[in-house]
Amino acid sequence: MKQLLGVLLMVNFFSAFGQQVPAFNPIPSGPQLAWHDMEYYWFVHFGPNTFTDKEWGHGDEPEDIFNPSQLDCRQWARTAKAAGAKGIIITAKHHDGFCLWPSKFSTHTVRESKWKNGKGDVVKELSLACKEYGLKFGVYLSPWDRNHPKYGTPEYNQVFVNMMTEIFTNYGPIWEFWWDGANGEGPNGKKQEYDWALFRSTVKKLSPNTVVFSDVGPQIRWVGNENGFAGTTNWNLLNIKGFTAGAGSPVTDTLNRGNMYGENWIPAECDVSIRPGWFYHKEEDEKVKTPEALFNLFLKSVGRGSTLLLNVPPDRRGLINAHDSAALMRFRKLRENNFRYNLLAKPTVTIKNNSTGKYTTKLTDGKQTTYEVLGTASNPSISIQLKVATAINTISLREPIQLGQRIATFRVLLQDATGATIKEIAGTTVGRKRILSFPSVMVNTIQIIADNAKATPLISEVAAYNINEGLIEQ
Ligand code: FUL
C-alpha cells in the first residue's frame, strides 16, 4: 500500500511539473542497452563434431577429421543478414578443445588439420565476413577442454586467458563473448577449478565494451533452459553474490525469471538450436524447426523482454544447409508480414494519458527515449481510442529500460464501443518488450493500467497487431 501511495505521489509530481523521470537503479550499461536492441542473432556450432556426428567430442579426434570441402563464412554471413539476424557468435572452441583458429597455446587446432593445408582460420574468415555484411561478431569459448594436457591443473587457467587474449587481440572487436559453464573431466581425468575472477578481469582489461555471457553474467545471464524461452515474468535483474557460472549458479527457475529486487542488471539470453542438436547432423535435416515454431520462439524470447540466440550449424561442406535457410527466410517473412503495421500508429487513433489528461504521440513514435508516466489502478493510465472497431490479437508494450525496469504487474483492458470490457489481459513484467497474443477480438478502446511498480511506471511504446491466427502463442 505504502509502495502504491509512493507511486501515486511521484506520478502526480512528475506529471504536474512535466519533469524527466530520474533513473531507478540498477540500469543497463551502454553496451547492454545496445545488446537488448539486437533482439535476434545467430549461434554457429561448428568443429570436429560436425564431422563425427557427436555433440560432445572427446578431444582425441584426429585433427584431419576437420576438413570442410567448401567452407565459406561469407555464405553464413550473407544468409544471416538475409534472415534478419543482427550478429553471429561462433564456437571458436567447444568442449573437445579443437580451436577454429591457429592458437599458439594448443596443438589441437585448424593448423594441425588438412583443411587449407593447415593455413586456414575460421575465426578470421567469419570476423571479416561479419564486418563485410554489417553483422556483430561474437565468440564462444568453452573453458571445459577435453584435449588440453594442462586442463585439470592450475596452469590451465592461464592457458585459457592466453587463448582469450589471442581472440580479443587478433579478431576484435568482439561484441559478445560466451563462457559455457560446463565443467567436465579433461584428458587426465580431472576437472578444472575455473578462475572466473581472472577470466572476468582479463576481458574487462582487453575489451571493456564486450558484453560477456555466462550463467551469471557479468553482463548477460543464461535463461535457464536450452529451449529458447524466457519466463513470462522476466526481470533483467539478478543477485550473483555467492554464485558462479556452471554448477554454482542460481537454480534454473531464478535464471528464467530473474530477481525482482536483483542488485545487478544482468538480462537473460535465450539460446536454442534450429535443429535438435547444436551441431549439424544429416539425419536431422528433416527436423529443422518450422518457420511457425521459430516465430513462436520469437514471441517467447524477444516478446518476453529477452533476446533470441538461434543456433544455425553449418554442414560438413562448411555451408549453411538449404533446409535451414529455407525455414529462416520464411521466419523472416512471418515477422515482417505480421508486424508490418502497428494498428495504433494510425492518425485516426488517439492516445491519452489519463494522469496528465493530455493526448500523446510518444507511444507510437518508435523512440525509446520518449515515454509517458503512468497512473495507477484507480486512474486507468493510458486510454487508446480507435475510431472504428478493429480486430486485434496481439499487443506489444515497452518500458524505457534505460531508466530501470519498474512495472511488476499490469493489465490491458480491451473494450467495445459502449466501454464494456470484452477481454482483460493481465501480465507481470514488461521490460524491453512484452508481446501478448490472444484470440482475435473487435476492439474500440484499449486501457493500459500499471497496478504495481517498483518505481514510477513508464511506458515508451505500444503497438497492436492482428497476426495470423495460427501464430498466436499457446
Ligand atoms: C552447452 C554445451 O554443452 C552444448 O554443447 C552447447 O554448446 C550449448 C550452447 O551449451 O552448455
How would you explain this protein's 3D organization?
- The protein is of the alpha/beta class and 474 residues long.
- The chain has two domains: 30-338, Glycosidases (TIM Barrel, Alpha-Beta Barrel); 342-467, Galactose-binding domain-like (Jelly Rolls, Sandwich), CATH 2.60.120.
- The chain is 23% helix and 24% strand.
- The chain has ten helices and 19 strands.
- The strands form four sheets. The protein has an eight-stranded parallel beta barrel with strand order 1-2-3-4-5-6-9-10, surrounded by four helices. Strands 11, 12, 14, 15, 16, 17 and 19 form a seven-stranded antiparallel β-sheet that branches.
- Helix 9 packs across helix 10 (322-338).
- The longest helix has 17 residues, at 155-171.
- The two termini are 34 Å apart.
CA-CA gap between termini: 34 Å
* Structural class assignment: alpha/beta
Mean pLDDT: 94
CATH class type of the largest domain = Alpha Beta
Bound molecules: beta-L-fucopyranose
Number of domains: 2
Instruction: Note the overall shape.
Output: globular
Into which percent range does the helicity of residues fall? 10-25%
Beta content comes to 15-25%
Uncertain parts: 1-18
Number of strands: 19
